[in-house]
Design a protein that fits this description.
The protein has six helices and 23 strands. It has a six-stranded antiparallel beta barrel with strand order 3-4-5-10-7-6. The two termini are 48 Å apart. The chain is an alpha+beta fold and 365 residues long.
Amino acid sequence: MKRLFTFAALLLGLAASPAQAERVKDLGQFQGLRANQVIGYGIVVGLAGTGDDSLEYATQGMKGVTARFGLTLPPGVNPQLKNSAAVMITAELPAMAKPGQRLDVTVSALGKAKSLRGGTLIMTPLRGADGQIYAMAQGSLAVGGLGVNAQDGSKLSVNVPSAGRIPSGATIEQAVDTGFGTTPHLTFNLAEADVTTALRVAAAINGSLGMGRARAVDAVSIAIDAPQGVEARTMLMSQIENLDVDPAQAPARVIVNARTGTVVINGAVRIRPAAVSHGKLTVRVDENPTVVQPAPFSRGQTALEPSSDITVEEEMRPMFQVQETASLADIVKTVNAIGASPADLVAILEALKQAGAMKAELVIL
């Protein structure tokens, strides 16, 4: 009875809240269904003299490539790899990726190669964090940058020519074992921790699948009882992902980017009664040096006599009052009325926070 009463109360809360429902799939993802990063070290050939030249690890990489075909370079021979470059290859292995599928890969120069334009990546294994090979990459690079060097030392660079991509340049060789079909239960993780949202997701799942099927473990995770087997769980996940849930309102937060002067205030911010006076002090220093000439036949020297003018301007702005429970619209209207710049707004918000008039999290980026 207690569990039924809690479920009924949650449903009433959902019905009374504003209609801003979102799909469950937009609030997070199921545990285990995530992408995995893979990386590899390889050699790009076919460059127009913009490679690594005699860089040591590029030479070692080329020796390894040629050794696969039974070609061994004599000791002490430097191949002068101007048309080759050592590169790092990165890619992201999607969740549930299967052998034979293709991946886009990013190729970046590792040494002093000036440009990878026109190059071709030699077959390179891509390994995961566990050291196993999950994909093989090879193909011609698409480079959006351009770099040109003239004989007089002048240079012209457009974008970044030392990195490129190979669309569908890697083939998946093995799938990642996620244990998706054998875990005791499914776990859905919210993208942002919120206890209210977790309870509402669990209530929506129980309303669709039956009481007791889902429970909020904490502010992030919802545990869901599910049958064994990949096929049955896939159908269940599809049903859950398309359920509509009204997420909880975000906590009051003010975001300030000190580098760009950008200030973002969300709609949950409220301000208690406060009076604010914000003035502006401008100090201006003008330098007007005067050239002093010596008298004729005095054997003197021309001198520069400094002359400085310092002025101080203080702009007097009247004190303004912020009403109780001011909303976001009221805050914006008041700030615009006094003509506050973004820097002034940051100072005002910090002062309101310190005075206890603004109950919101102030985040400085």
